[in-house]
Amino acid sequence: MSKQDGSSRQVTTGPVDDSGTPILHVDMDAFFVSVELLRRPELRGRPVLVGGTAGRGVVAAASYEARRFGVNSAMPMSVALQRCPNAVVLRGDYSRYAEYSERVMTIFRELTPLVEPLSIDEAFLDVSGARRLHGTPAEIAWTIRRRVHDETGLTCSVGVAASKFVAKVASSRAKPDGMLVVPAAETTSFLHPLPVSALWGVGRVTEESLLKLGLRTVGDVAEMPAEALTRAVGPALAARLARLANGIDPRDVETRRVEKSIGHETTFNHDLVDHDDIARELLRLATDVGVRLRTAQMVARTVTLKLRYGDFTTVTRSRTLAEPTDVARRIYDEALIPLAELVGDGRRVRLIGVRAEHLRAAGDGAPLWDPDEEWRDAERTIDEVTRRFGRGAVRPAALVRPGPKTAGPRADAEDADAEGVREGRDRPDGPLPPGARAFS
Predict the structure, then answer these.
(1) DSSP-assigned letters across all residues of 136-174
(2) Would you please indicate which residues are annotated as catalytic (active-site) residues?
(3) What fold does the segment set 1-13+25-161+169-181 form as a domain?
(4) N or C: which end of the chain has fewer CB within 10 A?
(5) Which of these, 398, 408, 76, lies nearest to 268 by C-alpha position?
(6) Which of 92, 95, 117, 94 is closest to 104 using CA atoms?
(7) 416 Cβ contact partners less than 8 Å away, ≥ 6 residues apart
(8) What is the reported pTM?
(9) Could you report the per-residue pLDDT of 10-39, keeping only the tens digit for each?
(10) Strand 437-439 to strand 394-396: parallel, antiparallel, or no bridges (unpaired)?
(11) What are phi and psi of 138, to 5 degrees?
(12) Domain spans in the chain, listed from the N-terminal domain onward
């Protein structure tokens, strides 16, 4: 999600040469907040935050009014409320966000089959083959904005350019509720005045390295001798930044994105010491990862455990499986092994996460003997019950009693381009709902 506050908004308002700009980047405006405002219209125009409200809760989304106070997503809620004490805080409803995301993606696919979702609220589109039916790229962008608003009540911003990188930069400049076309011939003149932070791959540390060299704009990077840039950031990143700074991005829109990993992590409201409490949360996370693997029809060869202690020291441990799996119980059992080594001696745990890595399509090279067959059958049965009766209808017996309170779940998937952030989903805690059953 964009952190733009709209103060530097730049949009296309008249005729423009879009003949060489078949790539669109569509980004929903303050998506989670905007969905909430559909049922809370009285909050429009006020600073609104979506996220965890207790302890170590974080901001999942901020309205543009809140962003003008320096609030953005992933910021601790306590810090956000210090900067913007008048903000209204709402808890997230991720199932509702997923529903609106699907409605928006359906609109995109009705205009072109070449849609590459980046996250729940943004996507790349290639409209090269849609011109005869739907008009020029700029006209298609206008159609998307109109249809999204008319059919969902939400707004989006669209960047139109010759490449994915430039289209994404353009959509962020057009926020909120705008469209910016960057003619192919004007690519470098558009990019070069922008700050170096506009380049993919330039985070805080890299930005500091570039600023120390006197490189403040994208144009400065483009003019930097290759040898000097390599010494500053290394050969791989230097080559990529040089290409992007000159508007060179040959990547195609990929309609099927291959996830490199699927993971969940959570931060506790209070540091934990007890091994059983931590293990119960690990089971909760492994269960979520297993569900997502089966939904994506993927299996994982590696399981990685992540722990962050009370002093913010972070450690990870990985285990490679004899056979790839999508079974939550196997993921949990494998993660338990390093957990036993890392928890104890009074060390307090602030955060725990589990990640399934080295993914491949389920069914590719299936083994003759499946050690997880019984657990897999049970979990698939639970998946079916969940689809019919809702999340929380059946769950492991160990999770029936309330676990440690957390600052809210986070789900994240590192994908091929790693531009998007996939938001977490609510997990039920506490007593089972009426009619629900537990399994052990």
Answers:
(1) SHHHHHHHHHHHHHHHHS--EEEEEESSHHHHHHHHHHT
(2) 122
(3) Alpha-Beta Plaits (3.30.70)
(4) C
(5) 408
(6) 117
(7) 254, 257, 258, 259, 260
(8) 0.66
(9) 899 889 999 999 999 999 999 999 999 999
(10) parallel
(11) -65, -40
(12) 1-13+25-161+169-181, 192-245, 261-439
